[in-house]
Amino acid sequence: MSSFNLFDAEEKSLEQAEDLRRRLEQAPGPVRDGIASLIEAYSRSVREQRRLVRVSDRLQAQLASVNQELGKRKAEAEDALESLKAAQESLVQAEKLASLGALVGGVAHEINTPVGIALSCASHLADSTAAIAKLFEADDISVDDFERFMATVKDTTGLILSNVERAAELIRSFKQVAVDRTSSERRRFDLAAYIRETLASLGPHLRQAGHAVRLACPDGIVMDSYPGALSQVLGNFIMNSLVHGFDPGQLGTLSITVEQEEAGSVRLVYADDGKGVPEDHLGRIFDPFFTTRRGSGGSGLGLHIVYNLVTGPLGGSVAAESPEGGGTVFTLSMPLSP
Questions:
Q1: DSSP letters of 21-40?
Q2: Tens digits of per-residue pLDDT, 269-319?
């Protein structure tokens, strides 16, 4: 029954009560007074109910307005969250491309040296060939001239071949790593060989820093996984050590150790012997945008990308620790086929 129907019934009850009081005008005084008191009390009750109904209606209207505003704010918050996620994803992709760009720059610089040597040798060989041809045409070539030319040919062709092979190896390693990083495709690969390719592609950065690199990984461990993700993880570990792990001029050692824990999984431990990580930072090291080098080139996304790649495509887990003796250790557990 609605409040309006309820009040209609109460009004009728009040009218009936007033009619009863008029009919009891001749009744004894106490009876009349009692009836009047009851009617007055009932009237006050009706007025109070009406007031409460008005208050309830006002509160319901306010509640509906608040609910509407909350719904609007919720929709705005959800839109903002989606925008934030999209922005974070864009930053993560930009960070990946930036690391690939740094890889390209380093490899291009590294390739420049063997290609330059090969070009100089080829030019020298061309000059020597032209000189010996001129002597031959003039029928003025001696045994000594021919022997010197052959020695030149032997030395220069050896240098050309070795340097071109070095450049080809760099290009091959970089091509495979770059393709894997950009395609994110799953394939079978030998873990030890692929780690060596990744280290070769990072060679320019490592040689510039001067740190020693040690790899201990048994041959024959074959993964059916995402090599691009693994390359990105190792690259981020190494660049994190180069940027954060050592003071300027300090030389150290970077190591990668791989063990097959059991059938179907491997344990990869990456470590450096640098400054280490403060204890209060370890719990936040994989958080997005957490960096101790804000304003100095640190984006705070490198290790966040590592965490997402290890726990996502690679289907494993990653943990960080900083031993008391110094350095930083990252331990990965990964299935051979996630």
A1: HHHTTTS-HHHHHHHHHHHH
A2: 999 988 888 887 777 787 766 665 544 444 456 777 788 888 888 889 999
Query: CA 115, CA 112: separation in Å to the nearest integer?
Result: 5
Q: Which helix (H) or strand (E) holds 122?
A: helix 29-137
Cβ(322)–Cβ(276) below 8 Å: yes
Q: Can you tell me whether residue 316 is helix, strand or coil?
A: coil
Nearest CA-CA partner of 322 in 265, 220, 226, 240: 240
Instruction: Decide: 328 and 320 in contact? Cβ < 8 Å.
Output: yes
Give ∠ CA 256-173-233 in degrees, rounded to 5: 40
DSSP classification of residue 241: I
Order of strands, sheet of 328-335, starting from the edge strand that comes earlier in the sequence: 212-216, 253-262, 265-272, 328-335, 317-321
Q: What's the distance, CA 63 to chain centroid?
A: 42
Per the prediction, the chain carries an average pLDDT of 78
Q: How confident is the model at residue 329 (pLDDT cuts 50, 70, 90)?
A: very high
Three-state SS for 78-89 is: HHHHHHHHHHHH
Nearest CA-CA partner of 233 in 307, 153, 152? 307
Q: From CA 243, how far away is CA 46, in angstroms rounded?
A: 79
Maximum distance among all Cα pairs of the chain, rounded to whole angstroms: 163
pLDDT in tens, 147-192: 888 888 888 888 888 888 777 776 766 665 555 555 567 889 999 9
Sketch the domain layout of the chain as residue ranges.
3-74, 187-338
Residues 6 or more apart whose Cβ sits within 8 Å of residue 25:
32
The residues pairing with 267 across neighbouring beta strands, listed in sequence order, are: 259, 333
Q: If we measure between CA atoms, which residue out of 190, 338, 314 comes closest to residue 264?
A: 338
Domain 187-338 matching CATH 3.40.50.1220: the answer reads: no
